[in-house]
Predict the structure.
Amino acid sequence: MVREMVAELKPDWQVTSIERSPHGTDLVAILEVRTPEPQSVVLKATTADFVDPIIARSEPRLLELVHRETTIPVPEVFGYCDDHRHYPAPFYVMDYVEGANYENRLEELPRTARERLLREAGENLAELHELGPLPAPGKIGVQDGELCVLDTDDYPRHDDFHDAVLADCMETLDSLTAGGFYPDLADDPERFADLVPELREHVRERVPDLSEPEEPTYCHWDYRTGNLLIDPDTGQTRAVLDWANLSSAEPAYNLGQTEFYLLNPVADGPRRTSRLRETFRTAYADARTDWEFTESVRERIDVYRLICRLGAMGCLPLWYQDASPEERNERAAEHRSVVNQHLAE
């Protein structure tokens, strides 16, 4: 099937080997092909139910856009198919990029490499955000063969960004009373239930009082080490992956999410965390000369970072389903520590 899928896109290529990747929720295979020169490529096909095809179809198009319009390191796309009668779709073929994946292993990176990762993250997101503005907040998808901000029953656009943020946050907190977003996988369905009443009150007060968001733009809401290929010696980001579920949102929202993923205040401590955050923010601001971290922007980022953490708490049963009970408890304790700091402010 994999050979036939490649032939649909590149009939003159010859597949000489296929290696299924153990990572990701969809079909990802590393292939050796003759083009006629030997080359390593990756075939990705949407086979899981986590991403709707109307959204998944955007990934190869976004990769092409980012490759063409920015210096963000992304794999080159060689071809894609939106629908197919016999094969899982959408699917596409892209270049293979060497690099290490440090998901849940940030502490293994040398100090200077970690700083470079944060600096390049700021630069990459600055370039991505400059591709906007977009017409409204919402989900990025494909309609009539073109990238767009979707406006459907399942994926509506939002008139008020903060109303949408608050509604999503309330849904997340509802889930935390009974095991999170994946209750069937939860070993302790009430792990965070005791925090929910105070968190509800906290976000109901904070979100409506936030300053007006900026115009929405492309936001890579899952910019984390699991979606980066990194040079283990230097920390250079060789590729930014997973462009299948982008949002149209204000830049500060994306910055808050990324700080949550790339910073670990519990493990690093307040001084180290502050230094790494400043590295990230300085790189971002330097790359957007007409933009600055005002006090209102910093406040919005702080709230968005908390909301992202709540989402991670809801996803803990899925993200750590193969971890030991000790690892799950350790991660839960980190969440509690940071959430309690927010509530105490």
